From TrEMBL:
Pfam families reported for this sequence: Laminin_G_3
Comp. bias intervals (Polar residues): 74-91, 99-112
Record-linked InterPro entries: ConA-like_dom_sf
Membrane-crossing residue ranges in chain numbering: none
Stretches the record annotates as Disordered: 74-112
Protein name: LamG domain-containing protein
Lineage: Bacteria, Bacillati, Actinomycetota, Actinomycetes, Streptosporangiales
Record-linked SUPFAM superfamilies: Concanavalin A-like lectins/glucanases (SSF49899)
Length: 112
């Protein structure tokens, strides 16, 4: 309770990997590509018809166009979005490449 947890997931075209606090905790073979749609990105909630929401706080969201390495995840985990993107906290960064890429930053609640 009252503890922040860093969660990261990567999909490299072969495996979906889940990291908790920088440690790989699960992986699954996943050959299907991510479906591209015009639907908004939902973080912390399911589709509206299911009305399920994460109970807690979500902060410092980052979405990359490439799968990060374990080392990049460790670095990201220890670098606040405000420092990495040059913007205030409570923001999401959509990176065109890896962590060294130039981010586009969105404020909380803004559609990505």
């Amino acid at each position: 309770m009252n503890t922040w947890t860093h969660i990261a997931a990567t999909l490299d075209g072969t495996y979906l990997r889940l990291y908790v606090n920088g440690t790989l905790v699960a992986s699954k073979r996943e050959n299907d590509p991510i479906k591209v749609t015009n639907a908004p990105v939902r973080i912390g909630r399911d589709l509206p018809q299911f009305n399920k929401q994460f109970k807690g706080r979500i902060d410092d969201i980052r979405i990359y166009r490439t799968a990060l390495t374990p080392e990049q995840i460790q670095s990201d985990m220890n670098t606040p979005v405000a420092q990495a993107a040059g913007h205030s906290s409570r923001s999401a960064a959509l990176m065109s490449g890896g962590p060294s890429a130039s981010p586009q930053t969105y404020t909380a609640g803004q559609q990505l």
